[in-house]
Design brief:
- 71% of the residues lie in helices and 0% in strands.
- It has three helices and no strands.
- Helix 1 packs antiparallel against helix 2.
- 10% of the residues are buried.
């Protein structure tokens, strides 16, 4: 389950990053405030992805170092909670919903 969740979540993050890049590209075709809004929104989406990937990398490090047992499954719960933001997207499984 966790491998499927990790792969699915990575794809959702990549989709979000691409949406951010698309908004920034679209901004070039618009004037003033609209361009600024799209650029800021795109930057936010890209920054959000970067931050979530850092959290996931840190959680994976705990697993690799054998500390996951000491944290009582925290890395899996972190993935589940981050994935919840994308629960309306295709492929989300109810079994991933945090309890």
């Amino acid at each position: 389950m966790t491998d499927d969740l990790a792969m699915w979540l990575d794809q959702q993050l990549e989709n979000q990053r691409l949406k951010g890049e698309t908004l920034k590209t679209m901004a070039y075709a618009l004037p003033g405030e609209a361009a600024r809004f799209l650029t800021q929104t795109g930057d936010f989406l890209i920054g959000d992805v970067y931050a979530k990937r850092r959290v996931l990398d840190d959680a994976a490090e705990y697993v690799r170092n054998g500390a996951e047992a000491a944290t009582d499954g925290m890395a899996v719960r972190v993935r589940e909670h981050l994935a919840l933001a994308y629960a309306e997207q295709d492929g989300y499984r109810e079994e991933w919903r945090p309890t």
